[in-house]
């Protein structure tokens, strides 16, 4: 991994390694050539890249705001001609970048950001000039479909992110404006920039582009999945979200396991936080009770939409359980989290079956109370065994969230609640002190 | 990708990005030049669109009519409203149907809802519901409208929208307040 800190450390060690005849001077030079200058050039390049993206985004946003002002003192013909100037400028700039600056990430990203935004501004301006009525979903769909080739032409990660945000916005508008099930096309729209992103994740797994696209896609999926669920059976979100978030976590744990910071592991971070929130929600009664109301289960979508929507909702938890099952074979203490994460969709599906078929919400609630407890305890023990402070604290956080949630919705006395909170706090402190002492002893 | 392929794709994308807005313009220009003019009575408010700016949102008195389809009108169904000119010179919609009519002017209406009291009547919204204005003028337009809008049981023939219609395509040309185009009315109004 070309992490700056690691490269800097390696460069510090190289003279010692050469002096000790562990490496030949030629090998040390080859390593220097391979990794390049640490910090200085990399940092400067990244700064130029960020500034070019920010500059292009600001100019593009400025053009949109100028458009929004509506210069209605000008004639319709003049405004129509003016509508194309930002777009044609962006196309000309992109052509120049493709011919002369194709290897410069800063030029490619900056011009792609500007180009993607001007596509939207031109469509907006034409809609404004001709008072075209407000079908927001159609506006976003036209914009992102015309903009998606920019991702490939200029190999732009920012354009891919803009596309993902646009597709998610489209799903939200389609869920409210169109007939039930239209938002299911969200899944197909997500596939369009995937070849670019998969190539990026394979080639530069821990680069800024992979981190940015990973975070944006993970967050967009969390929002967009909700819109795409519109038209499916009530309560299908339980299987979908437990499955989707578990798959995110498992994918991160498998393919991005060497990430040193949370910034470079969006899948694991979003999967873990999301799954914790969903599991905590499912320890309450209301999610299970809503499934039982007959009125809530009325389905407005046509048959084909119902089949596809519920198939997606069912496949996600099944896939997550299968992947977690494979991980379970090689699970040691350090991989315990993967197995625990895989249990969430299983609990969700079992709880849903009991709530929908047997009108019983107790099973689902009990399963998720037990699950969150086991997850917290498992992470705590695994963290203590492997001396990982972060894991210990996440485990304690899961346990305390469960205890706090239960203590606020039960009729226990203030005395009992007070003792429980003190015990949880003491647990936090003790675990941290134990781990820090162990680490200190190991360092000595 | 090889350079030639990239160049070909680039040219195709650039052409597509220009053609889409050009087609939008061409359809509306044809309607504005060749379409028949109708006047619709209005009732507005003043919202805001983050991308397209401020506009006067127009509601119309003509928002329900007889359903003349054989099957039941479902929600979210696309339908076609037959537009005629009434004796008072304003547009009248007497029928909404599932297919475009063979003769006469019509507009495509988006959502159609069945009236909860009468099965044969449907509610719809006309597709020319936004009149974009410069950001400083739109609030004044809203104020002007509030003073002149057509309230229930009261008809003000001087407040209406002028719409051109051709082959199902409708383009909002102007909005009139107190018998004057709204931009002209605002210029003459007291600040």
What topology does this entry show?
The complex is a heterodimer of chains A (444) and B (191).
Chain A: H1 4-19, H2 25-35, H3 40-69, H4 76-100, H5 105-129, H6 136-153, H7 157-177, H8 186-191, H9 194-203, H10 208-228, H11 236-255, H12 266-281, H13 286-292, H14 303-329, H15 336-357, H16 362-386, H17 389-408, H18 414-443
Helix pairs in contact in A: 1-2, 3-5, 4-5, 5-6, 5-7, 6-7, 7-10, 10-11, 10-12, 11-12, 11-14, 11-15, 13-15, 14-15, 15-16, 16-17, 17-18
Chain B: H1 3-34, E1 36-45, E2 48-49, E3 53-60, E4 64-67, E5 79-85, E6 91-97, E7 105-109, E8 112-114, E9 121-124, E10 130-132, H2 137-148, E11 160-166, E12 169-177, E13 180-181, H3 182-188
Parallel strand pairs in B: 4-6
Antiparallel strand pairs in B: 1-3, 1-11, 2-3, 3-10, 4-9, 5-6, 5-7, 8-9, 11-12, 12-13
Helix pairs in contact in B: 2-3
Task: Explain what the structure shows.
Chain A has 18 helices and no strands. Chain A is mostly helical and 444 residues long. Chain A has a domain at 1-38. The model of chain A has no long low-confidence stretch (mean pLDDT 82). With 191 residues, chain B is an alpha+beta fold. Chain B contains three helices and 13 strands. In chain B, the strands form two sheets. In chain B, strands 1, 2, 3, 10, 11, 12 and 13 form a seven-stranded antiparallel beta sheet that branches. The longest helix of chain B is centred in the N-terminal third of the chain and has 32 residues, at 3-34. The radius of gyration of chain B is 20 Å and the shape is globular. At the A-B interface, helix 3, helix 4, helix 5 and helix 6 of A face helix 1, strand 3 and strand 10 of B.
């Amino acid at each position: 991994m070309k992490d700056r800190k690691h490269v800097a450390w390696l460069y510090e060690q190289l003279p010692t390694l050469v002096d000790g005849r562990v490496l030949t001077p030629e090998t040390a030079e080859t390593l220097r050539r391979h990794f390049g200058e640490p910090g200085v050039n990399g940092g400067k390049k990244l700064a130029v890249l960020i500034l070019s993206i920010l500059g292009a985004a600001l100019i593009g946003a400025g053009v949109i705001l100028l458009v929004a002002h509506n210069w209605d003192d000008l004639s319709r013909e003049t405004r129509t001609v003016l509508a194309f100037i930002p777009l044609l400028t962006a196309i000309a700039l992109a052509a120049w970048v493709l011919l002369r600056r194709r290897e410069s990430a800063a030029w490619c990203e900056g011009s792609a950001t500007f180009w993607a935004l001007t596509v939207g501004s031109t469509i907006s301006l034409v809609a404004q000039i001709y008072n075209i009525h407000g079908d927001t979903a159609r506006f976003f769909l036209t914009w992102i479909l015309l903009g998606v080739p920019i991702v490939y032409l200029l190999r732009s990660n920012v354009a891919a992110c803009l596309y993902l945000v646009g597709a998610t916005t489209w799903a939200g508008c389609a869920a409210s404006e169109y007939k039930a099930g239209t938002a299911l096309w969200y899944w197909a729209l997500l596939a369009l920039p995937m070849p670019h992103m998969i190539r990026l994740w394979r080639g530069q797994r821990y680069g800024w582009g992979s981190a940015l696209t990973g975070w944006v896609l993970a967050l967009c999926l969390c929002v967009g999945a909700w819109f795409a669920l519109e038209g499916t059976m009530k309560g299908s979100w339980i299987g979908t979200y437990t499955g989707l978030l578990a798959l995110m976590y498992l994918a991160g744990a498998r393919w991005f396991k060497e990430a040193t910071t949370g910034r470079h592991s969006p899948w694991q971070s979003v999967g873990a936080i999301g799954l914790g929130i969903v599991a905590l929600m499912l320890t309450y009664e209301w999610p299970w009770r809503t499934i039982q109301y007959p009125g809530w289960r009325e389905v407005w979508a046509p048959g084909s939409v119902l089949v596809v929507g519920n198939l997606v909702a069912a496949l996600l938890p099944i896939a997550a359980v299968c992947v977690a099952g494979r991980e379970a074979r090689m699970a040691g203490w350090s991989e315990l989290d993967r197995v625990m994460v895989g249990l969430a969709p299983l609990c969700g599906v079992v709880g849903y079956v009991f709530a929908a078929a047997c009108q019983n919400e107790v099973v689902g609630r009990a399963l998720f109370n037990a699950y969150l407890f086991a997850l917290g305890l498992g992470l705590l023990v695994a963290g203590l065994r492997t001396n990982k402070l972060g894991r210990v604290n996440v485990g304690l956080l899961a346990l305390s969230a469960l205890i706090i949630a239960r203590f606020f919705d039960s009729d226990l006395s203030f005395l009992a609640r007070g003792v429980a909170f003190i015990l949880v706090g003491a647990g936090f402190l003790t675990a941290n002190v134990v781990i820090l002492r162990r680490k200190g002893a190991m360092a000595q | 990708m090889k350079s030639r392929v990239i160049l070909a794709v680039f040219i195709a994308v650039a052409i597509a990005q220009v053609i889409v807005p050009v087609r939008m313009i061409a359809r509306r220009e044809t309607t504005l030049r060749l379409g028949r003019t109708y006047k619709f009575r209005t009732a507005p408010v003043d919202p805001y669109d983050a991308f397209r700016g401020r506009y006067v949102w127009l509601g119309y008195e003509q928002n329900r009519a007889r359903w003349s389809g054989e099957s039941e009108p479902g929600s979210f169904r696309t339908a076609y409203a037959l537009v005629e000119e009434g004796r008072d010179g304003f547009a009248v919609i007497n029928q909404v149907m599932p297919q475009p009519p063979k003769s006469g002017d019509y507009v495509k209406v988006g959502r159609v809802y069945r009236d909860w009291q009468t099965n044969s009547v449907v509610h719809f919204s006309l597709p020319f519901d936004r009149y974009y204005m410069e950001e400083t003028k739109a609030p004044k337009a809203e104020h002007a409208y509030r003073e002149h809008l057509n309230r229930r049981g009261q008809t003000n023939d001087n407040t209406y929208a002028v719409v051109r219609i051709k082959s199902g395509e409708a383009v909002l040309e102007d909005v009139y307040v107190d018998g004057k185009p709204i931009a002209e009315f605002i210029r003459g109004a007291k600040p």
